[in-house]
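Aim 2, interim progress. The first record below pairs a target sequence with its C-alpha cells.
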Amino acid sequence: MNFHPYFKMQTIVEKLRYFIRWFLIDTLEPEIALAKCKELNSQIPPLYLLIILNAVAAAYTYRDLAPAYLTIGTLTPILAFTALRLISWVRSRHIELTPQQAIRKLRQTAVLAGVIAALYVSWSFALKSYGGITEQSHVAIVITTTVFGCVFCLMHLPQAAILVMLIVTAPYLVFFLSKNQEVYAAIALNLFLVSLVILKVLFNSYNAFVNLIKSRTELATKHQETERLNRENERLSHTDFLTDLPNRRYFFKKIGKHLDTVKDSREPFTVGVIDLDHFKQINDTYGHKTGDQLLVAVASRIQNLDLPDLEICRLGGDEFGLLFLGAPHTAASVAQTICDRLQRPYQISEMSITIGASCGLAKFPEAGETTHELFDRSDYALYNSKTTVRGSVTVYSADHEAKIRSDRAIESALQRADVYEQFQVHLQPIVAVPDRTITGFEALARWTSPELGQISPDVFIQVAERTGQIQRLTVQLFAMAVDQISALPNNLRLSFNLSAHDISSPETVGRLLKIIKNHHIDPARITFEITETSVIDSYEAAETCLNKLRDAGCRLALDDFGTGYSSLGYLHKLPIDCVKIDRSFIANLDDPISGGVVTSVLNLCRTMQMACVVEGVENLSQLDALEELHCPFVQGYLFCPPMPFDEISESLARSDAIAGLPLASNDKTEHRHRAVV
C-alpha cells in the first residue's frame, strides 16, 4: 500500500517531536524517573572520580611539554567543578525525591554532563599542539576510554550518554580523518564502530531497565491492590452488615490482642455486654423490618457517642459488646450513660419506639484473665441486671464469683441428675373460699441432690433456664405430676408452671400434650400457669403454643398477676382462663394501694368471667378480708403447705380430707367451673 507523501512527512514530524520530547526528558513516568535517580546515585560518583583521575594523568604527561597555565591553571577550576558535582551526588544519596524533583535533577545532570564533556574535550585539544605523537595518542586514548566509561555510567540516562558521546567522539572523528593518514583513518573508523556498538548496548540495557521498572511498578500496583482488597475483606469480615459496627469476631479478637498487650503490665480494662430490653416484643409486634431499622438506629446512636477509650461491637441479635480501656472505676458510669441514651425514644418511620438497655461488666484482671472468662462473667453480670433491675449496670464481683461457682456446681449436678430419682413433685391445695373445699393442686418441684443436698426451686429453675435444661426438666416433672393427679379423684385439677422456654417451644408443648393423652386424663383438669414476663420476649411463638394447649382442652392461668407493666393487655391478647394474684399484694392487704389492686382484679375477673386465685394466704385476717371481697379461690400456708404425694394419699385414705379440708364434690366443681368460665 502506498501512502501519500503528506502522511509520511506527518509521521516523520511526529517522530521528531517525540524524539525532542524524549531528549528533553519530558516523557518520563514518575516511577522510572525515581528509579533512574536511584541508579545514578551509585554510578555518577565513580564516573566523576574516573574523569578526575584521567585528567590528572593527562596533565602529568604534559607537565614538561605544555605551559603551566594549561596543565594547572586551566585544569584546576575544571577539576574543582567536577569535584563539587561528585560531592553533591554523594550527599544526595539518602535524600528522598518527589517525581518532579527527580525529573529536574535528570535534566540538570544531562545539561551538566554536556558542559563537563565540552570542557574536557576543549582542554584535551588545547594540549594536542604540544608534545609528539606519543603524548597526543596518550591523550586521545585517555579521552576515548574516559568517554566510554562515562557512557556506561550514564546508561540509565541515555540522553546524557548520547550528548557526551557526540561532544567527545565527533571532534575526534573529525581530527583523525583530517590527518589524511591510513592509521588515523583506521582509528576514526574503529572509534565510530565502537560508538555504534556502545549505543546499541546502551539502548538494549536502557530498554531492559525501563521494562524492569515497569514490571516492578505493575507488580507493586497489583500487590497494593491485593493488600487493599485484603484489608477490605478483613474489614468486611470484622463488620456487622446491618449496623456497620464491628462484629463479634472483631470483638473477641480485639480483647485477645489487648490481653497480649497488657499481660506484663497487667493494666486493668473492662469488658461488657449490653442487651436491649423488650426488643423481641418490638420485633414480634411490628415485624423484623422494623426491628432491623431499630437496630440501625441504636447503632447510629452508639456511633455518635462521644466517649473516649470506648469501643462497642454488635455481637448478634440485640446484644452488643463493650471494650473500655479507660479508668476502671469510671466504667460503670460510662456504661450507665450508654444505657440511659439507648433508652431514649426512637423515631422509626412514623412510630415512636422506646426500649431499654441493661449491661454487665467484668474487669481485668479481677474478673478473669482470658477472653472467655471476661466475656462469660460480663454475660453473667448482664443476666443479673436483667433479672433484678432492668436498665441497670452490674459489675461482676466476688459475690457473683461465689454464686457462679455455686451455679456451675448446680448446673453440673443438674446435667447428671436422674429426675425420677432425685426430684419430687409436691402438691399444694387450691381452696374454694365459701365452702372451704379443695378443688385442685398446684404442682411444685423439689430437688434433693446427693452431692449438694436440698436446692431451692428458685435456684435450680433459674440455672435450668439459663443452661437450656428446663425443657427436659419440665417434661419429666409434668409426667410425674400427671401420674399423681391421675391417682386422685377425677374432679380435682392440676396446675403446672411453664417457663418462657417451654411456651415458645412447639416440641415441648407437643410432648406435654402427648403425656396427657397417654395417661387418658381429661385435658380440662390441667391448668398451665405462665407469667407475662415469659410471654413478653417471644410473643408470637408463645401465642401459637398457648393456643395449641387451649385448643387441646387445657386451661391457662396468668401467674404473678399485677407485677408486670402490661398485664391488662395480655388478658385480652392471650387465651387466659384464670388469673393468680401475686402474694406480694396479700402480704400488704391493709395498704390502700395493694388492697385496691386486689379488689380491682377480682372485679375484673368477674366481668371477664375468669377464675381468680389469690396466692400467699397465711392468716385468718387475710382470709376474712378476701371473703368479704367475694374471692372465689385461695392458696397458701394457712390451709396447707406443699406436700409430697404420699402424705396426700395417706391423708385421704384416713379421713377423706387434707389438712382438715374436704375435697370438692363433682357437682360443686362443675358448677363452680361453669360459673367462672
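The second target in this work package is listed in the same format:
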Amino acid sequence: MSNAHPPQPNTSPGTDEIDIGKLFGILLDNRWLIIITTVIFAIIGISYAMLATPIYKADALIQIEAKSTGMPALGGDMAEMFGGAESSATTETEIIKSRMVLGETVDKLNLTIVATPNYLPVVGKGIARILGESHHIVISRFLLPADALQSGYQLTITNSEKGEYTLTDSEGREVLTGNVGVLATHNDYALYVTDLVGANGDSFSVGKVSRLDAIQALQTNLAVSERGKQTGILQLSMTGENRNKIKDILNDISQNYFLQNVARNAAEAEGSLVFLKKHLPEIKTQLTAAEDKLNTYRQQNESVDLSLEAKSALETMVGLEAQLNELTFKESDISQRFTKEHPAYISLMDKRKTLLNEKVRLNKRIENLPKTQRQVLRLTRDVEVNQQIYVQLLNKVQELNIVKASTVGNVRIVDGAQAYSQAVKPKKALIVVLATLLGGMLSVAVAFLFAALRKGIENPDQIEQIGLPVYASIPMSDWQLNLDKKRKSHQPLMVNQTLLAVSNPADLSIEALRSLRTSLHFAMMEAKNNVLMISGPSPEIGKSFVSANMAAVIAKTGQRVLVIDADMRKGRMERQFCVDSKCGLSDYLSGQKSVTDIIKQPDIDNLDFISRGDTPPNPSELLMHPRFSELMTWASANYDMVVIDTPPILAVTDAAIVGAHAGTTLMVGRFEQSVVKEVEISKQRFEQNGIEVKGFILNAVVRKASGYYGNYGYYQYSYVSDKK
C-alpha cells in the first residue's frame, strides 16, 4: 500500500533489455483505443469497398506469325523479295501502342469527347450505384468554336421523357438546347447526343480533350504483353468502369492493328508493281523498234541467215542480257531495304560486274564474224533481248498482282476482346483485411508512442531514486470524480456530498490516507511542532484533496485538527468543506479580522477550517507578517494537528515562507502528470530555504496492466464489511 512496493527489475537506465511484460501491459491498458481504432478502420475499409466504383478488365489475344507472301507457291525470288525476318514481340507491342493504330480508335469511337455524370463528392457515385440509380450519356459529336473553352460544360436533363436537355458553359450561360438523337447547333456549337439516361435535373460534365491527350490516355491504360517466351502471342488488356466500352476499344485496336499489317505487306508488292508498270511501255517500244530494224535490214540484204557460230553467240548474248535484267530488278528491290555497304548489295554488284565482263568478251568474239553476220546478229540479239525482257516484265506484273490480291498479313486475331463479368478492382475482402490490420497496427504504434513520450511518474521507485521516501500511493477514486462533477453543476451540497472521507469512508483512496496517517504519527514525533505543510511542484495535482481528506481522517480519531488554505491566489478548499471563502486568512493577516472571526466549523467533528479569504495583491508579503507566526503558534497550541495547504513551490515562493513555520513538510505529485525532474527541483528549492521535505505522496494512481506486468505496479485491495 503506502510503504510496501514490489521488488524492481535489476536493470540500469541504459539497458538494452526489452520488458515484454510491460509491452503487453501497455497493450492491455490501451485495449479500448486499439479496439475502437481497429473497428473504425474496418468500417472505413468496408465503406470504401462498398462505395468504390468497380473496375472491369477486358483482354484479347493476337498471334504474330512468321512473315510470308500471300502465295507460297510463287517461291523463289518472289518469296525472297517479300519475305523477311519475323518481327519481335517488343516491336509489335510498340506498333500496337503507336499513334498510328490508337489514333484510328480515338477517331472512330470519339474518345476526344469526355462526358461523365455529376455525383456528390467522394461517395455520390457509390451511393447512386447501390441505390440502382442509372446515369448514362453517349455523345457521338461535339463541335466547338475555335476560340471556345474545351471543357467546363454542363449538360442538364430538362425533360427525361422527351429526351430534352440544355448545355451551359463554365459560367452558367446557356449554349444550346436539343433532343436526344437530333443534331443540335447554335453559334458554331454542334452537339449530337446518341443516348441519355437520367432523371429531370440530373447533370453531366461535358468537354473535349486533344487527340494527342486521348491517345496518351489509351497508351497509359492499354497493357500489351507476350504470353510465354518467344511464343508470338500478344495479350492486349484494358481496365475501365464500362465493360462494353473497354471491349469495343480493344476490338477496334485489334482490328486496326490487323488492317495496318495487311496494308503494310500489300504496300511492298504495290511499290514493285508501280516500278514495273512504269518501265513496261518503254520496253515494248524498244522491242518494236528492234523488230523493225531487223526486218528492214533483212529486206535490204535479202534475208541473211545466221551461221552456227553466230547463233551460238546470240544465245549466249541473250542469256547474259536476261541475267543482267534480272539483277536490275533485284537491285531495285534491295536498294529499298539495304544500303550499298550491305553484304547482299555488294554481292549483287559483284555478280553484275562479272556478267558485264563476260559481255565485253563476247562482243570481241562477235567482231571476228563477217560484217553482214555481225549486223544481223546484233539486230537479232536486240529483238530477242527486248522480247525476253518484255515477257519477263509481264510475268512479274502478273505475279505481283496475285501477291497484292492475296496478301493476308502475318497477324491473326486469336481471341476477340471480352470483358470479365467480375470486377478486378476493388478487391473488397483484401481491402477490409488490410484496413483492419492497418487500424490495429496504427493504434498499437500510437499506444507505444504515447508510452514512450510519457515522462510522468508511474511508480514510487522513481521518486525514491532521488532520495525522497514515498509515504503513500493514493489510488484514483471514481467516487471523487463523481463528487467533482456534482460540484461543477453548482448545486447546493452538504459536506458529506463533497468530501470523500465523509461520503465514502471505505474508498480505497481513504484507506491509503489512513495508512498515511499512521506513517505521519511516527514521522512527526521528532518534529518541532504539530504543523504539517502540504505542497507540490505544480498546480492541478490534488494537494487540496489530500489535505482536506487526510485532515478529516485524522479528525475521526478524536484529534482536533485545523485546516488552513494558505493558497491566497487560487485556493478552493472551501468548496470541499461547503463553507464561504470570505473572512479568511488574508483578512486576518491584513489585520481586518481576529482569529476567532476566521475559523469556520464544517459539519465534521473535531475539524475546523480557515479559508483563504479575499484575494490580496501581495500574498507573499502577508505570509511574512508576524501575524502569520502568531497564528501558527496559537494553532499549534490549541489543536492536535494543523494542516496547511500551500501553492506549488515552483510557481510562487509562498510554500517556502510557510514551510519555515511547519514542523513537517510533505510534497504531493500526480500519477503520470508530475515529472521526476520537477519533483527533484522542488525538493532542492525547499532545501535551499532550509526546509526538509519528509516525504512524498503519489496521488491519483491508476492501476495499469503495464505496471502490473512490469513488476512495479501499485496493488490495492478493497476489504470492507459485507453488511450494509
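The first strand starts at residue 56 and ends at 64. This observation will shape the mutagenesis plan for the next reporting period.
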